[in-house]
Amino acid sequence: MRRNIDDEGDGDMTQARIETDRYRAIDVPVRGGMLRVGVWEPQDANDGPTLLAIHGVTASHRCWPALVRALPGWRVIAPDLRGRGRSRELPPPFGMSQHADDIAATLDRLGVPAAVVLGHSMGGFVAMAVHHWHPERLSSLILVDGGLPLQIPDGVTIQQASAATLGPALQRLSMTFPDRESYRDFFRVHPSFVGNWSDDVTDYVDYDLVGEPPNLRSATTPEAVTQDTEDFLSRGQWLPNALTSLPPGTPFLRAPRNLINQEPGLYAPDWIKWCQQEFPAIDVREVADVNHYTIVMSEPGAAALAEAVQAAR
Q1: Nearest 10 degrees: CA dihedral of 298, 266, 75, 204?
Q2: How far is 275 from 170, CA to CA, in rounded Å?
């Protein structure tokens, strides 16, 4: 059985769910150091199709186990993006083009010419950057509640829009916690996880902690979040160019509730209609009864994502 106990400890309770005979962790050389990447090999085949899954702005590769279980015949590759998880020591500059280069380096390291690429939240913008700067590395693309321009009201600055979009997620990065259970408790009362707690979420939360008690903190660096958020909110010309070059029927899976479990979601229905008019290649599919987190980190959300991945094969 292949087992990689993480060098900084992830807690014992949920190791069995993540450290299976499918999983290994590797470090990929990129600019400035090593990018941590999780790899789940196919369960029933030696060489199944490959999915590259890209997480959101304050997340890590440990958000994907539910999707991995829904895709037993697939190889799933998932990095900790620069400035997050065990890639947190990688230096700036950050930004979508840099993340796209790191993704290309990951595929090179694993000998994968092209993959189905799925991006959630900010990962959707990274996926769009891969499509724009490294189009030969995608066999198809799936966007999950991210990757389309976000609506910014008139008179609102990029910095204000960033704070409004991320809300408590930004606050968490400046906080310290005395022990692991305190960090779990912080997430247990998060509106998106009340009623949606699972072993997967426990593992995800535990993995995000770095440092020593009583000064544990999130692995995600504020600098990375700030630079990346300002980058994808700035609506550089590369993004509309990339969106207009998508093949027809590119899936966009929308969560009807947002980061704090409230409607109308990160992408409001009227804004989604505008996006569809501007970028008609997008095929919008609403995933019922999920929020911005549980569209990835729940069995129903993962089932909807897996269906889109299987269709893209």
Answers
A1: -50
A2: 27
Report which residue type is found at 62: R
Question: pLDDT tens digit string along 1-35?
Answer: 333 334 444 443 344 456 467 999 999 999 999 99
**Exposure string (b/e) for 288-306, b if CB count within 10 Å is 16 or more?**
eebbbbbbbbbeebbebbb
Q: pLDDT per residue over 53-79, tens digit each?
A: 999 999 999 999 999 999 999 999 999
The string of DSSP letters for 29-60 reads: EETTEEEEEEEE--SS-SS--EEEEE--TT--
Q: Tell me: pLDDT of 46 over 80.
A: no
Assigned token pair, 19: 């450290």
Give the residues across from 271 on adjacent strands: none
In angstroms, the CA 171 to CA 149 distance is 24
CB atoms within 10 A of CB 266: 21
Q: Which residues contact 287 (CB under 8 A, 6 or more apart)?
A: 253, 254, 255, 256, 295, 300, 301, 304
**What is the helix, strand, coil percentage profile of the chain, to 5?**
40, 20, 45
- From 140, 136, 142, select the one nearest 123 (Cα to Cα): 142
Spatial separation of the C-alpha atoms in residues 231 and 97, rounded to whole Å: 10
